[in-house]
Structures are given as C-alpha cells and as structure tokens.
Amino acid sequence: MQAHQLWQAVLGDMQVRLSKGAFDNWLRHTSIVGFEDDVATVAAANTFSASTLQARYVGQIEQAISDIVGRPIQVRFVVQHTALEADDTPPGGNGARSVPGRHATLAPRKERERARPSGTERSPARPGGDHRPRAAQPASSEQQLPLSSTPTHGLNPRYVYENYVVGASNRFAHAASLSVAEHPGGKFNPFFVHGGVGLGKTHLLHAIGHRALDLWPDLSVTYVSSEKFTNDLIKAIRAQQMEEFRARYRTIDLLMIDDIQFIAGKESTQEEFFHTFNALYQGGKQVVISSDKPPKAIAALAERLRSRFEGGLIADVGLPDYEMRTAILRGKGEELGTRLPDDVVEYVAQRDQSNIREVEGALNRILFLAQTTERPLTLDLAMEALTDTAVGARRSQTRPHDVVESVASHFGVAVKDLRGRGRTKEIVGPRQVAMYLMREETGASLVEIGQALGDRDHTTVMHGIAKIERDLGTDTTLRANVMAIREALFTKGGRR
Ligand code: ADP
Ligand code: MG
Questions:
Q1: How far is the CA of 83 from the centre of ligand 2 (A)?
Q2: Which residue's CA lies nearest to atom 16 of ligand 1?
Q3: What is d(CA 180, CA 177) in angstroms, rounded to the nearest whole number?
Q4: For residue 190, which of 120, 121, 220, 312 is within the disulfide window of CB 3.0 to 4.6 Å?
Q5: How do residues 99-113 score in pLDDT, each as one tens digit?
Q6: Please, which residues bridge with residue 222 across strands?
C-alpha cells in the first residue's frame, strides 16, 4: 500500500467518525508526507489546524490508521509550508521529512516519545534499539509502506515497565503482573486487573506483553481491545471465516484483552470469548483481562465467564497518591529530556487529585504552552496553562448538580427532563452540554456524571462529551452557549 492510499483510507474512516463540519475544517485538506518507523507525518495547512488536530483528534486518527495498518502507528502533525521552507527538498517534492525543532511545537507528546532512550523499544525483533537509517529514506507520498512482516502483537512501545511508576495504589497489581509476564500460563491464570479510567490498566497490559516477549521471544503475544475482538468476530461471522478466527485466537500463548466490560451484554461475543478463553486456558496459555470494575460488578456478564474470571487472580489499580503523581510527572519529564522544576511538579501533583491520564494531560498543556510561546517552564507559566479558564479553582466548588441546574436554566428546559428518558433534539443537546461541562468543571467521573443525569451509562456520557468536543470546533452557537453557562457557573461559585 502506498502512503497516500493509506491516508485516503484514514480520511474515509474519519469522515464517518466526525461531523461533516469538523471533518471539513480539520481533516479534508491534510495529506500524508512521511511514514517512517511506524510514525506517520501528516501535513496540515496552518499551525492552528495542526495544533487542533494534535489536541483534539490525534487519538482517533491514530486509532484509525493503526486499525488499517494492523499495528500501532503514531501520527505527528506538521505545517506544510513551514516544513518545506525548513527542509532542503525542492518545492513540490512533498518534503516534510524530519524537522524536529519545528515539529516539537506541534507535537509535544510525540517528541517526548522520540526523546526516549532507545532501550525502551522492547520489541525483540530489534535488539538494542532501532538501527535502521532514518535520513536515508526521504519521505514521499509515493513511499511504499512496510505493511507486512512486522509483529502483529499490537503492543504500544510507550507502555513498558520501565516507565510504569509503582505506588501504594498499584503495588499488588504490578507485582502480580510481573509474575504473569515471567511465567505466562502459570498459576495466575487468568489475570484480571480492574480499576477506574486512566489509572494504568492498559499500560500494564502492554507492559506484560513486552516483558514476556523479552523473556520468550518466540511467544505468540496479542493485545486486543474488546472492541477489536468483537469487530474481528463480527467480520469473521459475516465473511464466514469463523474457522480462521478461532485458529488465529486459539494459537496465542499470551492474550491480553482490554476493557472487557464492553462485551458485557453482547451475548454472541461473550459466547465466543468464553470458548476462546477455555481453549487457551486448557492449552496452558495465559489470558490477561482488564475491566473498569471487578467481575462481580459487571452487569450482564455471563455467569460462567464471571466465575472463570474469579477463578484466577484479581488485582485492582486505585487512585495515585501525591507521591506517585510526583513520580509520574518526574518520569514524564525525563522522557522529555528535561528536569521539570520542583515547584511545577508540586503544583501539578497537588492540584490534580484524580487519575493519571489527567495528570499527564495537565503536564501536556503546560509543555504545549511553553513550546508554542517559547517561554521557559516556570511555575507562573504552569499556572497560566492550567488556570486560564480557572478550572482548577472552580472544580472544587462546582458540583454536578450546579451544572445540571445552570444548563437547564440556560436552555429553558426542566431539570427533570435532562434527567429523564426523552430523546428529542431539544433535550439531548442540552443534556450532552451538561455532560461536557460536568466533565470540564467538576471533578466528577463519567459514572458520577451519568448518575447526575438520571443514571445514564458511562459510555453514553463518554459519547456525549466526545460529541460536544467535536462540535465545539465548528459550531459557534454551541461555543457561545457553553461560554455563557460557564460564566453563570462561575458567578454562582464566586458567591458561595
Ligand atoms: P486505563 O487503561 O486504566 O484507562 P492507561 O493505561 O491508558 O489507563 O493510562 C493512562 C495514562 O497514564 C497513560 O498515558 C499511561 O502511560 C499513564 N500511566 C498510568 N499509570 C501509570 C503509572 N503507574 N506510571 C506511569 N504512567 C502511568
Ligand atoms: Mg485503558
């Protein structure tokens, strides 16, 4: 497959995922200008588009491209004209190759990954890091992609034990997982990890895979999200290729399946998973499962699956304490190759009480501001980056119910309707705005947000928030509404 064909496929996929407005605004005019070491370089028309893509859509784009290629692919954004003038490539030559200094302002996360010592790439296929020449291969959209002959284990090179911080909240899960990685198919089978969003379950699953491969390079290791498992299953059923599906999954030595809660309620998927699971288990293979709750708390999980899970080892990951948040921030700083000032680390660690993903997000916002404004990393800058919308201060004062009330009064709808079952446009829109604002303005979890809105499922909440986030990019009326409600909340909070 050629790079530009790949990008066409990604665009096709994104067109389905995004609203038309968002797609036209941010993606329609992008192109792929390089593909090297599983990093795709994508050119946007200007800095604003590139930073919006980075901030808002990189996750979905990486997922789309990874799904198509069949292994984790990272995406970095460049600005077409900037890259061209910084490079020696003749005009028209599509030459946005590697311009690290320029890219750094657009892709802080990716740059940090690049800055990581080569030892963190754990794939056994490349001992000692990556020795393939980079510069020798000028990027071009005609470039042939190395789409086969690479491992299909689905492991993300970022998620390894080396950068997994251990603290009180994950000590047991960490120790147990190491034992699983070192003795796959041993006594901890299946190994079931559970805990809230952003607490390191996915990271741990990948780390197990990397470590097991380090120790047993011939092991057949596969990481899948339960979504991918389900999709593969559905595809196999449609194409009448169940034999292949079974053969593929049942020859795996170490299968990690993430977010199993998503298959709850899907009977045929659970059924097939149960058979896959039994086949592996009886063959002495290792199964590792993650979920947002312990097996007994997953409603609509087939009883026999539940008891299978409970027959293995169950470990939970909890909220990180202050010390752990500090250590995580320092670690991220090291990956970046900078020592973050102590006061910045302290500020971020004490401010953010919640999950690790948010701690990282806060740090990313700070780094992004520092890089785009070319200012040094100081406490002032950190505070500016994190409080320009005064979120930190308001969060502790704003309760989910305040948000529901403000949204209801702003749109002139009844609170009971927001919490009710009605699905008309007039209610669904405000309800999603309420989800979004609760997420932004209170410390509420997805589950708590769902509860505040009449016991809605957390995945519904997640989709609602994602929808508003997408629409905010293009819908000026929505933006004005959200701003006005924020104002109202803010004045209310200030009076208290
Ligand atoms: P979950 O799957 O539980 O939602 P993730 O594994 O995706 O959470 O973690 C969210 C982010 O936090 C990831 O970027 C991950 O690398 C980071 N992270 C989570 N736990 C740790 C940890 N103990 N040490 C360092 N980084 C962590
Ligand atoms: Mg996860």
A1: 34
A2: 203
A3: 5
A4: 312
A5: 333 332 333 333 333
A6: 255
3-class DSSP assignment, residue 292:
coil
Q: How far apart are CA 230 and CA 191, in angstroms?
A: 20
Closest-lying ligand 1 atom to the alpha carbon of residue 292: 3
Task: Give whole-number Cα distances, 358 to 204, 320, 400, in Å.
Answer: 17, 11, 18
Where do the H-state alpha helices sit in 239-355?
242-250, 267-282, 303-310, 322-336, 342-351
Query: In 10 A of CB 323, how many CB atoms?
Result: 12
CB 458 within 8 A of CB 465: no
Integer CA distances (angstroms), 25 to 42, 76, 467, 471, in order: 15, 18, 16, 11
Q: Where are the beta strands (DSSP E) in 147-262?
A: 191-194, 221-225, 254-258
User: Ligand 1: distance of its center to the CA of 355 in Å?
Assistant: 9
**All residues at 6 or more sequence positions from 262 whose CB lies less than 8 Å from its CB, including other chains:** 225, 226, 227, 230, 459
Query: Which residue's CA lies nearest to atom 18 of ligand 1?
Result: 200
pLDDT in tens, 410-455: 999 999 999 999 999 999 999 999 999 998 888 788 889 999 999 9
Q: What's the DSSP call for residue 128?
A: T
* Model pTM above 0.90: no
* Longest Cα–Cα distance in the chain: 65
Which residues have C-beta atoms less than 6 Å from ligand 1? 159, 163-165, 170, 195, 197-203, 328, 331, 356-357, 360
Beta-strand ranges (E) seen in 182-276 are 191-194, 221-225, 254-258
